[in-house]
Amino acid sequence: MIRIRGARTNNLKDIDVDVPRGQVVVFVGLSGSGKSSLVFDTIAAEAGFQLTETFPPFTRNRLPKWTRPEVGQIEGLSPVVVIDQRRIGGNARSTVGTITDAWTYLRLLFSRVSTPHVGESNHFSFNDPAGMCPTCSGLGEVVASAVDRFLDLDKSLQDGAILLPGFGNGGYWYSLYADGTFDVDTPLRDWPKARRDALLYGTEPEGVVERFERIYLRTSDNLSDRKKETIARFTRSEVCPDCHGDRLNEASRTATVLGHTIGEMARMEISELADLVTDVTDASVAPVVAALKDRLDAMVTIGLGYLHLGRGTTTLSGGESQRIKTVKHLGSSLIEMLYVFDEPTVGLHPHDVSAMTTLLEQLRDKGNCVLVVEHDPAVMAVADQIIEIGPRAGDQGGELVFQGTFAELRRAKTPTATALAQQRPIKDQPRKPRGTVTIADATRNNLKNVTVDIPTGVMTVLTGVAGSGKSSLASELVAQHDAIVIDQKPVSTNRRSTPITYTGIATPIRKLFSRLNNVPASLFSANSSGACPDCDGLGIIYTDLAFMDGQETVCQTCGGRRFTPEVLSHKVDGLSIADVDDLTITDAIQRLPDRAITKALHHLESVGLGYLRLGQPLTTLSGGEAQRVKIAKELRETTGPTLYVLDEPTTGLHLRDIDTLLAVLDDLVQHGHTVVVIEHNLDVIRQADWLIDLGPGPGKHGGKILYQGHVAEIPDTATGQALTNR
Ligand code: ADP
Ligand code: ADP
Ligand code: ZN
Ligand code: ZN
C-alpha cells in the first residue's frame, strides 16, 4: 500500500488514503474536487521530491523541481513517472522515431544490411555529423528568405517600399539603392519586372535579398532579440533543397533495405512499416528486426499506427504525445515504478479507448503501480480499484468519498455514481441553422479533397477516430473563414495574473472597501502607503542568489498579507482586503455587494469555475479550466455573430460538469454564434444540432466525410456504433 496520512495540499481536508500497489487505480470526482491535488501534487510530488533528494546538488539542479506537499506522512512510494498531456519538447530534432527509439533500431538495420553497404549505424543518424545532411545539418528544413514579404509594391522607395529594418527612407542601407540607381518616386508595382528583380537580386549594388541574408542568416554573431524578430518576420522554413527533408547525407539517404530508402521508411505509416519489416529474412539481424517490430506494433496497438516515424514531435497533439510517452515506458525494463496518468483518453474516440486501457493493464502486469486520473467510464471499468474525491469542487471537496470496485461504485450514491446512472438522450429537436459556410476543397494533411457545409447559428460536432482528420478540417475552417479558436493553452504565463486582474475587478474592489469604510481607495492599492513597507505589497521577498535560481520567501513582516495592519483592519462583510484573495468566485458574488464585481465574475461562474479563488494564479489552471476561462471571456466581450472552434472542451470535465459545459455552449449559440466542436464525449455528441463524422480510419485511411446530418440518423460508422453500444 501507499499509505497517505493527513494530506492537506490545496483543498484536501487532512485526509488519510491507502492506495493499493501493483494495481490500476482510477481517481474520479468533479473537476476541482482535488484529484490532481492528491495524485499529482501529493503522491507524485513526494515521490519526485524524495527521489531528487538522493542526488548530489549538481545533478539535483538539473532535475525537475518538485514542491513538497502538505502531508503528515506517506509510506510505500517508489520512483515516479508522470505521463501527462504536456506536449513533447520543442526540439526540431525530435521525431516520433527518435523519441520511441524505433529510429535507433531502423538505423541499426540499415547499417547491417543495406545496399550498398554503408557501415556504422551513426551514418544513419541525422543527429550525428557522420550521417547528417550538410546543407540543413540534419534538420530537414532550411531557413529561407520570404522574399514576398520584403516589399510593399504599392509604395515607392522613398515612401518605404522596402520593409526590412534599415532599408526604409533614412535607414542605414537606404542610400545604396536611392543614390540614383533606382527610381525613388514610382510605386514598385509600376516598375518593369526587370527593375524589381535588379533591386532584389542584382549585383550592382548588391541586391536586397543577398544583403539581408548576409547580415541576418549567414552571420556567426549572437543574434539580438530584435534581429531574431526580424528573421522570424522575413523568413520561413522550407524543405531542405538537398535532402528534401530526409535529413541525411547523400550516401545514407540512397542506401536501401527491401528496395526502400530509410527516408521512405520514415514517411511510411507506422502500421505499413510494421508489416514491411517482417520481410527482412537475414538471420543476422533478426533481434534488431524483432525489437523494431515490437516498438512499431506497440504504436499500432495504442492507435498511433497512422503516424510516421519522421513526424516531428512538436506537431503532435497532447493526446498523441501522451500515448507516445506511454509506448516509451512500455519498453522499459524497470519494475515497481509508480506511473501516474492524467486523463489518458484525451483525443481518443471510444473506438480507440480499449487500446489505451490495454496499455495500462500491460504496465501493471509488468509489476508497476498505475494511478490514473480519468472521467471516462470505460477506464473506470478496467480499474482494480476506484477512489472518488469530493463530494464537490474546491472548499466543498477534498474528502475521500468512495473507495472500491467499479461494480461497487455503481451501487454507491456519490456524484460520480449518480452521473454514471444518467445518460443524456439524443437531442430530439435540433436547432434550425441560419445559413451555412462552406469549407471548400480541403486537402490539409490527410483530407481527401473535402467540401462540406457547416451550418451557422447552431452547434456542430466533428467526430471520428483519432487521426481521421477532425483537427485538420477544423484548421481548414479557421483558415478559410477566420474562425476563433478557443483552445486549452494557458490563459497567462504571468504568475501575478489572477481572476482579479483578469476580470479587471481590482479597482471596483478597492472602491467598495473605500465606500464602506470611508477611507481613500488608494489605501488598498499595492503601490500606496497602505502596502507593507518590507515587501512593497508583494507578500513575498525575492533573494537573488549568484549562480543559482533566485529564492522566493513569504514576507516575515506581513506574513504574505501584503498590507499594513491598519489597512487590514478595514472590513467588508467581515473580510479584510487580503481575505478577498481567498474567496472563491461564488462566495465573492455573494459577499461583495457591488454590481461591477458581480457582473464581471458572473461569466466565470456560468462556465463552472465558481470554485476558483480570486487570488489563484492563472498559471495553476488546467487546460480545460483555461479553455473555460476563454469561453467566459467570449461570452463577456463578443459583438457580432462569430464562428467558434473548440477542440475537446470536455477535457478534465467530470460527467456532471459536462452539463455546465453544454449550457455554456448553448449560451454561445443562443447569442447568435456558430459553434463547432471536436469531441469524443458521447453526451456532447448526442446534444449536437448537426454531426459531421470523419473516417473511416486514421491517416491515409481517413480524411473522408462519412456522414453529415442529425445524430439520430447516423449510420453504422465507428461513431454510430459507439452511440448505440453505450
Ligand atoms: P481536480 O484535479 O479534481 O480537478 P484539483 O486538485 O486540481 O482538482 O483542484 C482542487 C482545488 O484546489 C480546486 O479548487 C483548485 O482551484 C485548487 N487548486 C489547485 N491547484 C492550486 C494551486 N496551485 N494553488 C491554489 N489552489 C489550487
Ligand atoms: P484528428 O483530429 O481526427 O485526430 P488530425 O486532423 O490531427 O486527426 O490528423 C489527420 C492526419 O493528418 C493524421 O494522419 C495526422 O498524423 C496527420 N497530421 C496532422 N497534423 C500534421 C502535421 N502537422 N504534419 C503532418 N501530418 C499531420
Ligand atoms: Zn538537408
Ligand atoms: Zn510584507
Description:
The chain is an alpha/beta fold and 726 residues long. It has 4 domains: 190 residues, 3-Layer(aba) Sandwich (Rossmann fold), CATH 3.40.50.300; 104 residues, ABC transporter ATPase like fold, CATH 1.20.1580.10; 99 residues, Helicase, Ruva Protein, domain 3, CATH 1.10.8.280; 162 residues, P-loop containing nucleotide triphosphate hydrolases (Rossmann fold, 3-Layer(aba) Sandwich). The protein contains 28 helices and 23 strands. The model has no long low-confidence stretch (mean pLDDT 89). Belongs to the ABC transporter superfamily. UvrA family. It is found in: Cytoplasm.
Note the topology.
Blueprint: E1 2-7, E2 15-19, E3 24-28, H1 35-53, H2 57-60, E4 71-75, E5 80-83, H3 96-99, H4 102-113, E6 141-145, H5 174-178, H6 193-201, H7 208-217, H8 225-234, E7 235-239, H9 250-254, E8 256-257, E9 260-261, H10 262-267, H11 270-276, H12 286-301, H13 318-330, E10 338-342, H14 350-365, E11 369-373, H15 377-380, E12 385-390, E13 399-404, H16 406-411, H17 415-421, E14 435-442, E15 450-456, E16 459-463, H18 470-481, E17 484-486, H19 499-503, H20 506-517, E18 540-543, E19 551-554, H21 565-568, H22 577-580, H23 585-591, H24 595-606, H25 623-637, E20 643-647, H26 657-670, E21 674-678, H27 682-686, E22 690-695, E23 704-709, H28 718-725
Parallel strand pairs: 3-11, 3-12, 5-10, 10-11, 16-21, 16-22, 17-20, 20-21
Antiparallel strand pairs: 1-2, 1-4, 6-7, 8-9, 12-13, 14-15, 18-19, 22-23
Helix pairs in contact: 4-12, 11-12, 13-14, 23-24, 24-25
The chain binds adenosine-5'-diphosphate (ADP) (2 copies) and zinc ion (2 copies).
Residues 532, 534-535, 539, 555, 557-558 line the site of one zinc ion.
